[in-house]
Amino acid sequence: MNRLKKRTCQFLVLVTTAGFLTGCGGGTPKLEDALKKTAAYEQKTVTSPASDTLGGEWTVIALARSGETVDENYFEKYRANLEKRVKDQEGVLSDNRYTEYSRAVMALKSIGKDPTDIGGYDIEKPLEDFDAVVSQGLNGAIYALIALNADDPDANKDGELEQKYLDYILEREKADGGFSLDDNAKDGDVDLTAMTLQSLEPYQDEEDVKEVIDKGVDFLADIQDDDGGYTAFGAKSSESISQTVIALSAVGVDCNEDERFQKDGKGLYDTLMTFYQKDGSFKHTLDGESNPMATDQGFCALVAYQRYQDKENSFFDMTDHR
Question: pTM to 2 decimals?
Answer without folding.
Answer: 0.91
